Amino acid sequence: MANQKAKMILEKDFKVSEIDNRIYGSFIEHLGRAVYGGIYEPGHSQADENGFRQDVIEMVKELQVPLVRYPGGNFVSGYNWEDGVGPVESRPRRLELAWRTTETNEMGTNEFMKWAQLVNADVNMAVNLGTRGIDAARNLVEYCNHPGGSYYSDLRISHGVKDPYNIKTWCLGNEMDGPWQIGHKTAAEYGRLAQEAAKVMKWVDPSIELVACGSSNRNMPTFADWEATVLDHTYDHVEFISLHQYYGNRDNEISNYLALSLEMDDFIKSVISIADYIKAKKRGKKNINLSFDEWNVWYHSNEQDKRIEPWSIAPPQLEDIYNFEDALLVGCMLITLLKHADRVKIACLAQLVNVIAPIMTEDNGPAWKQTIFYPYMHTSVFGRGISLNPIISSPKYDSKDFTDVPYLESTAVYNEEEETLTIFAVNRHLQEGLDLEVDIRNFEGYKVVEHIVLENDDIKQTNSAKGTPVAPHSNGNAKTENGGVTAVLPKLSWNVIRLEKRK
Ligand code: AHR
Q: Given ligand 1 and candidates 27, 174, 317, 319, which is best to mutate, with the most ligand atoms within 8 Å of its CB?
């Protein structure tokens, strides 16, 4: 069968924006085995003196995760942060209502901050605007960021942490539009509360950046009105509005499934429009940027989660085992985020360990990499610099819910300082390779140094603790010729074509 053909033009001056590294963020929630049994398992052969699993730390470092959202998620809407600081033996056990488990509070703010430092990540801290409000939020900012000489900063010092953490990015609650949320609110109720909490949190520390809750997903009945109302209240006090979206191949139709990143693209464009409408309404000067602080595939574990025994401690919840096609969609979603790097300044793959995660662990056993680990790692490691705006021509197809889906999903990142150019590409075609021709114009002297490919004959292939059959190889055939790049992108594949300037 003859391959399909696609073309791409890359030009140094066609820029979307400098990429904010926080776009490669992730998320750890007190949920399932993310914290207990995931990052923290005292007694495990790999545990350090803090009880942190070193094998997990090593994998998180491989991903070069720059930012981790914490402690939730739905969990944060019932969380008393004071339960998680001070002597561990005096911390209360609580009924955790979001996920119907028991929270021991063995890990809390200081333990998590220590772990984040070990993996070289900043923390995106969420405050509880479900059951609590302005007071608990401003006290937590004081505990974390004030140098000393006040009740909460001195409390932190008495807990053994002399220097403030200076946490920069904060979330004003979580999914407050969702009826499942503890303390669910209307847009007006939430907007007012978020406005006042934001104002006061910034009085404690004016250097922080704040994320107001947008909709829990694009299909929420209140979507769009929610964002407009919330931003109407909070425009002067926040820097970001959040987006959350999870996808699943519920109908088992891969062509349609892989096109879902087009919906994500549309969602992003809609939220930008709403943020700009409010800016116009306010005669504002600043743009509200987007924090896509929960995104991923999530559906494999839905049925088994219904069987979890209530009030157990760290049960295996949301343990999606990802297959090869999920890795392709995750690749398309990463490319979509990069295409909007001018407005999406934060994004968090939800989540990081065990819970809908790229990294899995077995209790007392090994850690292992899911299929989605690879596109996330490749973009995080090679996708730092300037997001370029490529001109792409690709053959297209129609699927159940989409028309004109390009077989080629692609973008490129230029790192001026390191003189590297990296093309990320997915071939959505089920049967045929894609002959790609890239015109690299004013990237004189740039040569292909590596063509990484993630491919597999079985789209349902998964990895496990026993082995990782879905893993990338570097045998792609991309080459530089006649001042351009040519490559064959195998059918259904994730590709990373790396170029470096050769003197
Ligand atoms: O990431 C899992 C859950 O998904 C989060 O707790 C919640 O915010 C979302 O609904």
A: 174
Say yes or no to pLDDT of 375 above 70.
yes
Q: Is 174 in the pocket of ligand 1 (CB under 6 A)?
A: yes
Atom of ligand 1 nearest to the CA of 72: 6
pTM: 0.98
pLDDT for position 402: 98
Q: For the chain, which residues make up each domain, given as ranges?
A: 4-12+388-501, 20-76+107-382
pLDDT at 1 over 70: no
CATH number, domain 4-12+388-501:
2.60.40.1180
Nearest to 119 by CA among 68, 168, 85: 68
Scored b (16 or more CB within 10 A) or e, 136-165 reads bbbbbbbbbbbeeeeebbebbbeeebeebb
Distances (CA, A) of 211 to 205, 214, 458: 15, 9, 40
Nearest to 127 by CA among 172, 97, 183, 166: 172
Q: Is 175 in the pocket of ligand 1 (CB under 6 A)?
A: yes
Ligand 1 centroid to 73 CA: how many Å?
5
Assess whether pLDDT exceeds 80 at residue 220.
yes
CATH of 20-76+107-382, one of 3.40.50.1820, 3.20.20.80, 3.40.30.10, 1.20.120.1780: 3.20.20.80
